[in-house]
Design brief:
The chain is of the alpha+beta class. The chain has four helices and ten strands. The chain has two domains: about 160 residues, Jelly Rolls; about 40 residues, no CATH class. Helix content is about 20%, strand content about 25%. GO terms for molecular function: manganese ion binding.
């Protein structure tokens, strides 16, 4: 009986270990530059022929030192993302970054990154930031902090978070690092009220406990995507 129990336990642990390894494998080569022209579809991108790789595959003249236009944004922010779609050398490396410009009283509205944790560093100005926990018996807890130049804040993967510039006469700038080559973004208001085709107003009226007319008005608004 003891031998049988030991065998079952060992088998379970081996299976568990194999699943863990399979879900997040270590790189098997120095790099895997994305071949975005390949017809093959995989989770990520097929590797470009290493003999055809050059330094430009790992380089992007992103001009992240230059301010971005926030005047045309309804939310007063502009996100400049550097991911694998723009920098092929990021493929399989599990990182990306973004510069975020905030107008006075501008915000990066509540959103989530389904595939990445984010660490934000304030380069200039002041930001009020926060994230909300997932559903618990005690509700959804909000964690907030006021950040100044040089401060850092972490937003856990998949949780709704935001940044707001509370200063009425000065812009702010932040740099965000993300733990995915393609973190993705779901801006809450855009996804809920600006989906195409729209979510049924019956569904949303019940979810938000409001009249359908309120939902119809919200769905008629222009929901801007500030993540470029």
């Amino acid at each position: 009986m003891a031998t049988s129990t030991y065998f079952l336990l060992a088998s379970f642990l081996a299976l568990l270990a194999s699943q863990v390894i399979a879900s997040d494998p270590s790189p098997l080569q120095d790099f895997c530059v994305a071949d975005k022209h390949s017809p093959v579809r995989v989770n990520g991108f097929v590797c470009k022929d290493p003999m055809a790789v050059n330094a430009d595959d790992f380089f992007m003249a992103a001009n992240l030192d230059k301010p971005r236009d926030t005047k045309t944004s309804k939310v007063g922010s502009n996100v400049t993302l550097v991911n694998v779609m723009k920098l092929p050398g990021l493929n399989t490396l599990g990182i990306s970054l973004a510069r975020i410009d905030y107008a006075p009283l501008g915000e990066n509205p509540p959103h989530t990154h389904p595939r990445a944790t984010e660490i934000l560093t304030v380069l200039e100005g002041t930001l009020y930031v926060g994230f909300v926990t997932s559903n618990t018996d005690n509700g959804n807890k909000l964690f907030t902090k006021v950040l100044n130049k040089g401060d850092v804040f972490v937003f856990p993967q998949g949780l709704i978070h935001f940044q707001f510039n509370p200063v009425h006469d000065k812009p702010a700038v932040a740099l965000a690092a993300l733990s995915s080559q393609n973190p993705g973004v779901i801006t809450i208001a855009n996804a809920v009220f600006g989906s195409k085709p729209p979510i049924s107003d019956d569904v949303l009226a019940k979810a938000f406990q409001v009249q359908k007319g309120t939902i119809d008005w919200l769905q008629a608004q222009f929901w801007e995507n500030n993540h470029y």
